[in-house]
Write a structure and sequence with these properties.
The complex is a heterodimer of chains A (about 90) and B (about 270).
Chain A: H1 3-30, H2 37-49, H3 56-64
Helix pairs in contact in A: 2-3
Chain B: E1 3-5, H1 15-23, E2 26-32, H2 43-62, E3 68-72, H3 82-91, E4 101-108, H4 114-130, E5 133-137, H5 144-156, E6 166-168, H6 176-180, E7 185-189, H7 198-208, E8 213-216, H8 228-238, H9 243-258
Parallel strand pairs in B: 1-2, 2-3, 3-4, 4-5, 5-6, 6-7, 7-8
Helix pairs in contact in B: 2-3, 3-4, 4-5, 7-8
The chains are: A mainly alpha (about 90), B alpha/beta (about 270).
Chain lengths: ~90, ~270
């Protein structure tokens, strides 16, 4: 596909998602409360989004990922929250 | 269009989903053992679940002309209790000769704990001893990268398992290359809110090729779409992929992997 065809196919959808992200950040800032490791990870991911060319999806995923290699002693929950608390 | 749904938790779905899937061209559905959304209280609960997967669900699918296959295990979400896991592991061999059981799965990790790894190693040993195919679940969100690395290490250490008989499911952009580089298969799970969107899955196919990749919806009791695979085929068509390329990815590829188990038969075979 050409760049023009990709824009024809995906630009409006990507624009919609970008505005949703902006509105999410505004919503979070308007609300009461303190900092959170998930937002710190989110900001790191945003930097990757605006960074150099190529592999952005991979770099965004890495910004949220646990980079350690040792198993944890025990699972105390079943759920994942979307960002690694240890990076904060 | 024809496709195989290689990963769907149909016991959690309504009968109308079978109607929609068959109408969309589904030729076979495969159901890995899964967490019920709550912890089962004993191994007896798993015995009943394995009977549901091997006896009841194939009959429900057959009403719509759809072959139903399954995979057996205790899911990593219930692997922290190693005593329960051992009891469930002991049940599995008696089900392996059932005509619709394709292998061991979906095993893997959830929170990447020591006990989860111990239970994963026992499943891998079970699969190797019984010559079974293996379907592996990789963890969610922030745990996926680490969990994928740990899982690949466990499987690579098991010399009795050929990499081509193992599929590592739920890959994303940060794990797909890790998996494909081992010679194992990679599964892309198409979810509305996590894992892969159809567009991202097709991106990865365009970047890495579609040689050892399948796509699945992994529909279950949560937010999920049993028609995610045919919708991804539509995404490929929008980008100009040929009908032959789409057929290779969503029908021939899963048929090639699953066909390594002689019990897997498609209606036209």
């Amino acid at each position: 596909m050409t760049r023009s065809q990709i824009l024809d196919l995906y630009f409006v959808d990507a624009r919609h998602k970008l505005i949703d992200l902006a509105a999410f950040l505004d919503r979070w800032e308007r609300a009461e409360g303190g900092e959170d490791f998930r937002m710190a990870a989110f900001r790191r991911a945003l930097q990757e989004l605006a960074g150099g060319p190529g592999d952005r999806a991979e770099r965004v995923l890495l910004a949220f990922s646990d980079p350690t290699t040792e198993p944890i002693p025990a699972a105390t929950t079943k759920a994942a929250c979307g960002a690694w608390p240890g990076a904060h | 269009m024809r496709y195989i749904e290689p990963h769907a938790h149909m016991v959690s779905r309504v009968t109308d989903d079978y109607v929609h899937m068959v109408t969309a061209g589904c030729a076979a559905v495969c159901e890995p053992a899964f967490w019920a959304g709550f912890d089962r209280s004993s191994a007896a609960g798993f015995y009943d679940y394995f009977r549901q997967l091997t006896e009841h669900e194939p009959k429900r699918a057959a009403k719509f002309g759809l072959p139903h296959y399954c995979w057996l295990c205790i899911n990593p979400k219930e692997s922290e209790d190693t005593q329960l896991a051992d009891e469930v592991l002991a049940l599995i061999p008696s089900f392996l000769d059932q005509p619709t059981v394709l292998g061991i799965g979906e095993i893997g990790l959830n929170k990447n704990s020591r006990n989860e790894i111990q239970v994963l190693e026992k499943h891998v040993d079970l699969a190797a001893r019984h010559g079974q195919l293996v379907l592996v679940h990789t963890p969610h969100l922030e745990d996926k990268l680490k969990g994928t690395r740990l899982i690949l290490d466990v499987i690579k250490n098991e010399s009795r398992l050929a990499p081509g008989r193992v599929i590592i499911d739920h890959v994303e952009e940060h794990t797909v290359k890790l998996v494909l580089d081992t010679g194992m298969w990679a599964g892309m799970t198409l979810y509305p809110e996590s894992k892969c969107s159809p567009a991202r899955a097709v991106d990865m196919v365009e970047v890495y090729g579609g040689e050892r990749i399948w796509m699945n919806c992994a529909c279950d009791w949560g937010v999920s779409d049993p028609l995610a695979v045919p919708k991804t085929a539509l995404e490929m068509r929008k980008r100009g992929h040929s009908a032959a390329a789409i057929d290779r990815l969503i029908y021939q590829n899963p048929a090639r992997f699953l066909g390594q188990c002689p019990k897997f038969k498609l209606p036209a075979d």
